[in-house]
């Protein structure tokens, strides 16, 4: 087959997968009495190559979530001609990569330390821009997960009003990896209840509308519990070549 024919076939698969995910989102919204327009689908493109990302862009996608800075940077450079494509960082960030991040990332969903907030704000000021951020919360109490413990979030969010370049939009979490839907749902409920509480007490300028939760295996549950963004990789792009431990290392670096 010619490469054009292969591309056409891949494009069809991607469009079909997107449609299937959108129908599942719509069905979950219907069950929950929610408007599907209130749920943002963020395709997660880690390990997915440029050819397929150009095809998903051609299918109408304008935002991509990436887990690692280097990979996201490389892709954003290679696809700089797609001026309306926005890159979101959804994985842990070390402070020594902040300088690079402020050059191309439009939203950061894994803010989890005062030190990182300060480093980001300083670089953003220098760059003369602002950044949408979500605070990552560890709702499963698993050591392998990044994010703040739920009882630390309130104080942390209050401290963020000192950083005028960070536009705080809400919270993000990864649920427990479990086949037990009750345990997974409990993580989503925890994040929503925390968000609702913070909404009452948040200082001016701190937004608490976003709930980024739910992935390929659990986004319906997340929508039922109030997700405003679902981050979906595998269900759109297919299986990744490496296990997820590669992206969520158990040995957390303490930079
Ligand atoms: C990879 C990843 C996802 C998407 O996972 P799938 O199971 O492939 O849908 C969502 N969120 C984060 C933070 C990820 O790293």
Can you offer a commentary on this structure?
This protein is α/β, with parallel strands linked by helices. The chain has a single domain (3-238), classed as TIM Barrel. 44% of the residues lie in helices and 16% in strands. It is built from 9 helices and 8 strands. It has helices at 3-32, 50-58, 69-78, 98-104, 114-127, 150-159, 181-201, 219-224, 234-237; strands spanning 40-43, 63-66, 86-89, 105-111, 131-137, 166-173, 210-212, 229-232. Strands 2-3-4-5-6-7 form a 6-stranded parallel β-sheet. Strands 1-8 form a two-stranded parallel sheet. Helix 6 (150-159) links the parallel strand 5 and strand 6 (166-173). It is globular. Bound molecules: pyridoxal-5'-phosphate. Pyridoxal-5'-phosphate binds at residues 44, 46, 67, 90-91, 174, 215-217, 231-235, 247.
For the structure shown, list the relevant keywords:
disordered C terminus, single chain, six-stranded parallel sheet, TIM Barrel, alpha/beta, binds pyridoxal-5'-phosphate, 8 strands, 255 residues, 9 helices
User: What's the main sheet like?
Assistant: 6 strands, parallel
Give the class-level CATH name. Answer: Alpha Beta
Q: Oligomerization state of this entry?
A: single chain
What percent of residues adopt helix (DSSP H or I)? 40-55%
């Amino acid at each position: 087959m010619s490469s054009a024919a292969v591309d056409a076939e891949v494009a069809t698969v991607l469009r079909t997968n997107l449609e299937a995910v959108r129908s599942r989102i719509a069905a979950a919204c219907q069950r929950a009495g929610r408007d599907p327009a209130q749920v943002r689908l963020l395709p997660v493109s880690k390990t997915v190559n440029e050819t397929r990302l150009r095809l998903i862009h051609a299918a109408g996608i304008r935002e991509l979530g990436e887990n690692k800075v280097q990979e996201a940077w490389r892709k954003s450079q290679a696809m700089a001609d797609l001026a309306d494509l926005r890159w979101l960082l959804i994985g842990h960030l070390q402070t020594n990569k902040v300088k690079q991040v402020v050059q191309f990332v439009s939203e950061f969903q894994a803010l989890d330390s005062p030190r990182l907030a300060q480093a980001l704000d300083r670089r953003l000021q220098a760059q003369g821009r602002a950044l949408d951020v979500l605070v990552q919360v560890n709702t499963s109490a698993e050591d392998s997960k990044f994010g703040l413990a739920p009882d630390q979030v309130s104080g942390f969010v209050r401290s963020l009003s000192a950083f005028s370049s960070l536009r705080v939009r809400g919270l993000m979490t990864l649920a427990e990896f479990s086949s037990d839907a009750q345990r997974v749902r409990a993580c989503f409920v925890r994040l929503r209840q925390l968000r609702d509480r913070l909404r009452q007490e948040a200082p001016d300028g701190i937004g608490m509308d976003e709930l980024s939760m739910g992935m390929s295996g659990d986004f319906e549950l997340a929508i039922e519990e109030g997700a405003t963004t679902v981050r979906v990789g595998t269900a759109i792009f297919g299986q990744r070549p490496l296990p997820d431990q590669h992206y969520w290392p158990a040995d957390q670096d303490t930079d």
